[in-house]
Amino acid sequence: MKKDIFHIHNVYDQLQRRRMQIAIAIVCVVIGMLLVTQLQVQKSISKKLQEETKQDLGEIIRDLDIEVRALQKEERDLELRLVKYQGTAEDQWFILNEAAQNLENLKMFAGLVGIEGEGVQVVIGDEHKFLDCYNLWDIANELKAGGAEAISINGVRVAAMTSFTNDSEGRVVVGGVKVEPPYVIKTIGDPKTLSEAVGLLGGIQYTLTSYEGVTFNVTEIKNIGVPAV
Amino acid sequence: MTIILPLFGLLIGIALGLILKIPIPLAYVKYLGVATLAALDSAFGGIRASLEKEFNDKLFISGFFSNTILAAFIVYIGDRLGVEPLYYAAIVAFGVRLFQNIARIRRHIFKSRHWE
Question: Between chains, do B32 and A32 touch, taking CB under 8 Å as contact?
Fold first, then answer.
């Protein structure tokens, strides 16, 4: 009797155990599915989050915007500098031009270049060879005072260092070259001023023409050429 | 021996999940997570009950499904009511029960092996 009870109990126990196992197994199947699905979804979500959170994208866009703005500002600055440099270059070109002009003027003044332009031609006749180098020198100085840019006497350029001398025979030597009357003095400058300077009352013409045989002939010429030294 | 069938079931479940790759909309991920937690809690509760010789298969199965669905439902209600922290309530409740069940299982194993 006792044995039977034990037997029944054992059978019941085994049955119970089998049912329990099956139940847990079924539950486990569902749990396995749930777990795997959840893990996979979670993985894909975190991946997506890593890739593109709205906020992150916004931040990236903001950063890029700032960078773009900085680059645009730099571009503007560079353009400004370019304009400045171009201006400077132009200024420098202007200065250079001016310097070249100056040089040209100085060359003209020094008689290093031949010039052509408006001017006056003074032809001085001297039948008796009365005039000496000082007279010619006076004439040259008078013309210079009258604003002459360039002067030549019988084709000899009169510059700052040109000498006026008399040789032993009483002839005038200008810049080492003997000159004979009639003296042809070519001058470049404002013709009116120059002719006035020469023909001034009590001036050089007035003084010199008082001598016998000395004649002055002043003509204003549109285009007159003065050679270089 | 008692562990083989449940383990086999778990493996089948994992295989099924991997093969089917059930697509879950992003909005429902939260529900699935809490449901999974509830399911785990139920499973460990079942194991504990069997160790304490209190196991009832009908109770177990019904508890498993009702707990799982209830967990998801609680989260849903929280969302609907604008009380999203209710989600944490579910997580805490099932988490605590999970720990308790595991602790009791451990104690039973210790007792049965006379390790105490």
Answer: no
A27 to B9: CB separation less than 8 angstroms, yes or no:
yes
B46, B28, B31: which is closest to B97 by C-alpha?
A: B46
Which of A136, A79, A150, A123 is closest to A220 using CA atoms?
A123
Tell me, yes or no, if A34 comes closer than 8 A to chain B by beta carbon.
Answer: yes
Please give the helix or strand (H or E) that residue A108 lies within, else none: helix A54-110
Mean pLDDT of A185-211: 83
Peptide bond connecting A191 to the previous residue in cis, omega within 30 degrees of 0: no
Report the residue from B2, B13, B29 with minimal CB separation from A31: B13
> What pLDDT is stored for residue A1 in this prediction?
46
Domain ranges of chain A: 2-51, 56-110, 116-226
Question: How many whole angstroms separate alpha carbon A174 and alpha carbon A182?
Answer: 14
Q: What pTM does this model have?
A: 0.45
CB contact under 8 A, B46 and A27: yes
Report the distance separating Cα B87 and Cα A217, nearest Å.
Answer: 124
B29 touches chain A (CB under 8 A): yes
B55 shares contact with chain A (CB less than 8 Å):
yes
> B52 CA to chain A: closest CA distance, Å?
12
Instruction: Dump pLDDT digits (tens) for A120-140.
Output: 998 988 887 788 888 888 888
Tens place of pLDDT per residue across chain B (116 aa): 567 888 888 899 889 888 888 887 777 888 888 888 888 888 888 888 888 888 888 888 898 889 889 888 888 888 888 887 888 888 898 899 999 999 998 888 888 888 76
Looking at CATH, the fold of the domain delimited by A116-226 is given as Alpha-Beta Plaits (3.30.70)
**Taking the domains of chain B in order of start, what are their residue ranges?**
24-112
Q: Where are the beta strands (DSSP E) in chain A?
A: 115-126, 150-153, 156-158, 164-166, 172-174, 177-179, 183-188, 214-226
Mutate to test the interface with B, among A19, A30, A35, A46 (most CBs of B within 10 A): A30
Instruction: Tell me which chain B residue has its CA closest to the CA of residue A19.
Output: B57
